[in-house]
Structure formats: C-alpha cells, structure tokens
Amino acid sequence: MQHSELKNLKIAVVGAGYGGAAAAKALSLLGAEVDVYEQANQIREVGAGIGLRPVTMNRFRQWGIFDAIAKVTSPSEYFEILTATGDPIMKEAWPVDGEQTHTHLVHRGDFIEALLGVLPEGMVHLGHKLESIQDNGDRSVLTFAGGKTVEADLVVGADGIKSVVRRELFSDKGPVFSGEHAYRAVISVDDAHGMVTDDNLRMYIGKGTKIYLLPLRHRGQVSFDITALCPDGAWNPEVTKDDILATVEGFDERLVSITRGLDMDTVNIRAVYDIDPVDTWHSDSVVLVGDAAHSMLHHQGQGANSAIEDAGALADALRDADSLKEALARYQAIRKPETDKLQAISRQGWSEEEIDDVFPGQKPADAAPKE
User: Fold this and answer.
1) Nearest alpha-carbon partner for 195 in 261, 108, 245, 249
2) What is the pLDDT of residue 350?
3) H/E run at residue 331
4) What is the pLDDT of residue 357?
5) Whether the Cβ atoms of residue 80 and residue 203 lie closer than 8 Å to each other
6) What are the residue ranges of helices labelled H in 241-294?
7) What whole-number distance in Å separates Cα of residue 217 and Cα of residue 201?
8) 70/207 Cα distance (integer angstroms)
9) C-alpha angle with apex 125: 20 to 186, nearest 5 degrees?
C-alpha cells in the first residue's frame, strides 16, 4: 500500500498482550494511526519465563527495539532434553536466523513491560473490555463495556485464547482442554539446588510429566515449570503441594526438593488449553493475530514467538500489497500454514520416542542423542 494510504489508515488493536503490543509497534512504524484497547485496568504478566527465538529477536532489530528487549533477557546457546533422572536424550543449539544465533530467555512480565515501553505514550487504552464487534465490510465498529464505540478501517483481534473477535466473526468453537495442568513459579537461583549454572533451557520428561528449568540469570532467578497429566479441566483448578509432588515422583531428587520448597502462594496453577485451527482469520477489515488466531500448547515454546511473527508478517503484507483486502489475505496465506503445523506438533506427546517428531528440522530422524 502507498505511504499516503497507510498514513490515513485508522487501526484499532484489541488486546495489549504480546501479539497486540507487537502489532501496534510494527503497524505504527508504517505510519498508520494505531490505538490499542486492553480490558485490564493494569497489565500484569504472571507465570514463567519464555524463550525469544532468533527470528523474533531479528524482528525487534528491524523495528529498532532490539536493545530494549535484550537488556531484560539472558542469551541462551542451546536447549537440552533429559529423562526424569537426568540422562541425556538430546542437546541442540537453538536454530539461527542470519547473524542472530542466540535465543533470549526472558520473564513474561519483563517482556510485556519492555514491549509496551516502546509504544508511544497514549497509544494503549486500559479498561476497555470488548463486548461486540460489527463488521461493516470496509470498516468495523467496536463496542466496549459501558457503551463506548470505536470505528476503525482495520481491527486487529489480539484478544487471546478467549477472543471475542474470533467468537463473533470467525469461529464459535471454544478452547480445548489438553488433559494437562501447568504449575509455574519463579524461584531464586540459590533455591535451584545447583541445577542452574548456565543460561540454557533444560527439560526433564517422564511418566506424563515435563519439568522445565529456564534460567533468568540476569534476575538471579529460574523459571520452574511442571506440566503434568490431570483430568481436571477447571480453568483455575485447586491443587495442593502434595498433588504437585505426586507428579514429580521418580524424578531427580533435586527436582523433587525444588518442588517441595515451593511457596504455593507464588505458584501459578492453570489447566492447559489451546484451540482447534481456525479456517479463516480475516474479513475485509478485521484480522486475528496471536492466540486469538492460533492458541497452541506451550510444549514448543512458540506462543509468544508466533504472535510476534504474526505482527511482523501483517506489517509486511500491508506495506507490500496493493490494498488492505489483498494484504490480509496475503498475511493469512503466509502465517496460517506455519501455525497450523505448530499447533499440531504442540499437541503431540513427549515420550522419548516422540522427541524427533516434536522438534522437526532440528534433530535428524537418524541422529543419535547428543551428550
């Protein structure tokens, strides 16, 4: 689209999470008028750490915000997968993207704070809970709780796994329970029983349980994540420490000791959900990004990375296409095949025999485990 067309484009982003904040940054750099509407009165990310892949960090470099993100991260060289008792299964360098060779490990709260911090003041409007959206073809109207309405040439639905935009316009199918719980806490490196001495991610797997140790050494902390089979699909289930300890029985005694020492008031407990692939992500004036479009299980660690890449691909399409309609179709054509694959892979199991399948392209099928 011509610069003059982009400059006159009024864009409303629904949701100020990773996808929404990244989309706001990328689209505002095109010269468009961008406003972000977030239902929370205060943005606060809880939970664990995540890894920002090289392709994601290169997007930040492209947008001129690499340093702002990198300064709250620890660069990591590789990830390792081990049995419950610590025997190696595989060890792989993170996939590179150009000259960017490190994946950057970051606390979710630091990440969203840094992302929002690079947006112009006044762009994000808190306390705006979306109630409905009316798609009028070339423009759409958002109605928020309290009656406020906003009209925009383009609405970007970045409102997460329970997306109102998706439900109203694209799919009325709700989130799908995975049969798992995630128990997440951020602990001091000193409480990690000597298991964290570098900046590399390790996963221990056994008997339906995965334990992730993700160093946040720039904070002097570790993100400790247990994902375990459980039939209770309540969104915020009630779980005791004994329940959690039962999921790590038979694991390395140091991991059991970390679990035993958790302060339950600091543990984020969630049933794990994703969504089935959504056939269509866009109309002529509305488009989905991030979890609203393709929420996936966290086993691949690709939720945030996919949302950032959505934002970049959407901005690229708007810049390169001749019209808004063409841009949205191009964006979906580029991103949906990738996220469909990631959603499917993330639903696969994590037995030792299935590791080759869940890390396609990173470990040749005939390669022996590396030590």
Assistant:
1) 261
2) 52
3) helix 324-346
4) 55
5) yes
6) 241-247, 253-260, 291-294
7) 12
8) 36
9) 60
Rg of the Cα trace of the chain? 21
- Cα–Cα distances in Å, from 361 out to 52, 92, 357? 18, 11, 9
The reported pTM is 0.91
pLDDT for 361 equals: 37
Whether the Cβ atoms of residue 328 and residue 287 lie closer than 8 Å to each other:
yes
Task: Using alpha carbons, list the distances in angstroms from residue 124 to 24, 34, 65, 115, 128.
Answer: 9, 9, 18, 12, 10
The ranges of the chain with pLDDT < 70 are 47, 349-371
Between helices 108-117 and 18-28, what is the axis angle to 10°? 20
Residue 353 has a pLDDT of: 55
Q: What is the pLDDT of residues 180-230, one digit of tens each?
A: 999 999 999 999 999 999 999 999 998 889 999 999 988 999 999 999 999
Q: Are 321 and 333 in contact (CB under 8 A)?
A: no
